[in-house]
Amino acid sequence: MRKLYQTIFILIFWVGLWQLFSMLMDQELLIPSPYTVLQHLYILAKRVSFWLSIAATLLRVITGYVLGMVLGCFLGAITWRFPFIRHLLHPLLLIIRSTPVSSFIILILLWIATDFVPVFISLLMVIGIFWQNIYEGIESVDSQLIEFAFIYRLPFKQRVTAIYLPSLRPFFSSAAIASLGLAWKSGVAAEVLCHPKFSMGKALYDAKIYLETADLFAWTAMVIFLSMILEKFIRYALAALKKEG
Amino acid sequence: MDICFSKVSKYFDSLCVMDNFSYSFQTGKHYCLMGPSGCGKSTLLRLACGLIQPDSGNISGIDQNFSYVFQENRLLPWYTAQQNIDLVCHRYDTTYWLNAIGLTAFSKAYPSELSGGMCRRLSIARALAANGEVYLFDEPLTGLDNTLRKQMICFIHQHTAGKLCIYTSHHLDEAQMLSNEILQFSGPPLNHLK
């Protein structure tokens, strides 16, 4: 109950601060009031295109996220198993980690269809994190347990399920949570730059072009809200996975 | 099948822990290795089962199935007591082993929820349940009180009859109860005194 009151207080504090700034500026074009944003959100939500844009963005980001997760795990495992492949692919990991996301978006926009750019960008943001975490996770598996498996001649499948997967779980979880926000933000950023037909990024871009600041705020609020929902979902899924054992 | 060390040498960096060591451990006998900490007793066990390789010399008999009670319990922390035994159980069933070590009520408990002594008993039961051809026990009774020590010695003997067992211990009375041949060592490098 106390936590609920605290959450309500924090919400009121920040919305109040926003309202105060809006009143001080007295220019809806620069900082629209929370009420105006809510009104615009209500108007937007009545349009089919609003929901189509949200669904399409979610689909793109989740596709990129899942593909990045699968590929990252695979690369983490294979680069651990084969040192030559690790050395061979190391520059690729460095490039993925250090290249600004905007450079990637612009470059990839030249190579592939607009609709797939956000998918690819989300994938790119996720792959490096999973790759690194899974590699480090396998590296840090308790050598005493590996010796135990050797002595008792546990078959490969049992080694994986009884020792490697449970040891990797914290590394996988932290990668899953850390990369989700990144995939979401970069996916939407890619949409802003490449404007796929139905997308939250294009909606943000259009709102900016037509100086619809209230719409811009409304879409941004949706981006934040969905990001929170996705994070809650992934935390729930990971907890359920842990319970499953 | 016997385990024979023939002129075995082992180095860890520049430290020689075993120098031209030869000995034959015979099937059906129970040996206890005694000697000061760090003299190479555990290294001998690890060489015997192939966990580490000798730098020179030859060891025969390492291709057998081993059951090993490590110095540390090495229980899987994410598995319950029951699951830890289930993983390697090749004779009787898990219920039998948990009952034999008095942990039936703790079958669903994780190692972190058990006391040190309970984990030790679980680790011993797991090794016995695996039904190896050779048993290696590295200070198996550490952390157990006198009553439990005696119970566990009987329990071990009951399930290892006719098999080759190699124990390590620091206590003479324990070594006498566990084995029928005590080997005194000094080292490093490991040197058989008598």
Q: How is this structure best described in words?
A:
The complex is a heterodimer of chains A (245) and B (194). Chain A is an all-alpha fold. Chain A has two domains: 1-28; 32-244, MetI-like fold, CATH 1.10.3720.10. Chain A is built from ten helices and no strands. Chain A has helices spanning 2-25, 34-45, 48-81, 83-98, 101-111, 117-139, 143-151, 156-194, 200-209, 213-244. In chain A, helix 3 (48-81) runs parallel beside helix 6, helix 5 (101-111) packs across helix 6 (117-139) and helix 8 (156-194) runs parallel beside helix 9 (200-209). Chain A is globular and about 75 Å long. Chain B is α/β, with parallel strands linked by helices and 194 residues long. Chain B has a single domain, classed as P-loop containing nucleotide triphosphate hydrolases (Rossmann fold, 3-Layer(aba) Sandwich). Chain B has six helices and nine strands; from the N terminus they run βββαββαααβαβαββ. Chain B has a six-stranded mixed beta sheet, with helices on both faces. Chain B has a three-stranded antiparallel beta sheet with strand order 2-1-4, covered by helices on one side. In chain B, helix 3 (94-100) packs across helix 4 (116-129). The radius of gyration of chain B is 17 Å and the shape is globular. The two termini of chain B are 24 Å apart. The chains are: A mainly alpha (245), B alpha/beta (194). Chains A and B meet through helix 7 and helix 8 of A and strand 5 of B.
List keywords for this structure.
heterodimer, A: 245 residues, MetI-like fold, 2 domains, 10 helices, B: alpha/beta, Rossmann fold, three-stranded antiparallel β-sheet, 6 helices, 9 strands
Which helices and strands appear, and what pairs or packs with what?
The complex is a heterodimer of chains A (245) and B (194).
Chain A: H1 2-25, H2 34-45, H3 48-81, H4 83-98, H5 101-111, H6 117-139, H7 143-151, H8 156-194, H9 200-209, H10 213-244
Helix pairs in contact in A: 2-10, 3-4, 3-6, 3-8, 5-6, 5-8, 6-8, 8-9, 8-10, 9-10
Chain B: E1 3-12, E2 15-25, E3 30-34, H1 41-48, E4 56-60, E5 66-69, H2 81-86, H3 94-100, H4 116-129, E6 134-138, H5 146-160, E7 164-169, H6 172-178, E8 181-186, E9 191-192
Parallel strand pairs in B: 3-7, 3-8, 5-6, 6-7
Antiparallel strand pairs in B: 1-2, 1-4, 8-9
Helix pairs in contact in B: 3-4
